[in-house]
Amino acid sequence: MTKSNAETLVTIYGGSGFLGRHVVRALAKRNYLIRVAVRRPDLAFHLQPLGRVGQIHAVQANLRHAPSVEAAARDAQVVINLVGLLFERGKQRFDTIHSHGAEQVALAANAHGARLVHVSAIGADENSRSAYARTKAAAEKLVLAAQPQAVIMRPSVVFGPEDDFFNRFAAMARISPALPLIGGGTTRFQPVFVGDVATAIADAVDGKVKGGTIYELGGPEVKTFEELLRFVLATIERKRLLIPVPYFAAKIKAALLQYMPKPPITPDQVELLRTDNVVSDAAIAEGRTLQGLGIEPELMEAIVPAYLWRFRKTGQFKSRLA
Q1: Distance set, CA 36 to CA 28, 52, 64, 103 (Å)
Q2: What is residue 272's predicted lDDT score, i.e. its pLDDT?
């Protein structure tokens, strides 16, 4: 007999992060039992109010420790891997977490007969100059080799209340007289709402998407880096200079900034900015997009101002009369 959602256990690795909390919310609304596998379960209590009593619980798992990964997958019917790094620190390396860690999750899913949904990134490319992009591509290969019917989701830049993109540049604009246009600001992005990505992942858990397929998730608009920074400045009602910075100069500066506790940019991220981060023509033609899944993506103009207002001088209030 087919189990109902209320009897179906879903293990989410990395479920306490930005995207994770939205995936947990989406699955909780669909009545799934949810196990959140994280390094620090004591820091995941904020997830429990997203579901009914006993529906969501956290367990300890570290992708660098295979036995903990395997234990977290026990009895699960579906496994989701959301773990990813934006920059390296200590033992948290791109190849260890993205590649080796993703393989361990896939092997654990296989060991317990669970379906797998793996979240990658549109920039994944085994020939990229960026270690982030190379290890994301390597992870996809390892996942599909371990479980050929796995579903892979590649989102573009993800936005939402806790995002690390619009919030980062808005915070910079609050204290800096200028913002850098790395590489001239011509890199193209296709920002996608975190809720839409979570819906696509939940649909994959429901079995509504095709296994063994790579989906590319982008929003309804393609914008250059410069256009996105101008949008941020207009939203927070601040005037700042936008200064073009060549890639080589940005990389030199990033080489120093990368040692900050939470670096605003790293040399590897500069390399990522050399390549457009948009949905491919092939994915559009083959229906491997949000629209292909029947999801109409949200406009960033409809969402972002609702959480960037705190960076205005006057907060939620307008600085000028309408």
Answers
A1: 12, 15, 17, 18
A2: 94
Of 216, 206, 195, 228, residue with least CA distance to 303: 195
- Considering only CA atoms, which of 270, 12, 241, 240 is closest in space to residue 128? 270
- What is the per-residue pLDDT for 3? 72
**How far is Cα 197 from Cα 295, in angstroms, rounded to an integer?**
9
The pair of three-digit structure tokens given for residue 180, joined into one six-digit string:
């850098």
Contact criterion met (CB below 8 Å) for 39 and 64: no
Cα gap 55→184, rounded to integer Å: 48
- Tell me the one-letter amino acid at 139: A
Strands across the sheet with 115-119, in order? 56-60, 33-38, 9-13, 78-81, 115-119, 151-155, 214-217
Residue 110 has pLDDT above 90, yes or no: yes
Residue 71 backbone class (left: φ over 0; alpha: ψ -120 to 50; beta: rest): alpha
d(CA 116, CA 114): 6
Spell out the alpha helix ranges (H) of 207-316.
Answer: 225-235, 247-257, 267-272, 281-285, 300-303, 305-308
Mean pLDDT of 203-212: 96
pTM for the predicted model, two decimal places:
0.94
DSSP annotation string for 106-120: HHHHHHTT-EEEEE-
Position 6 scores a pLDDT of 87
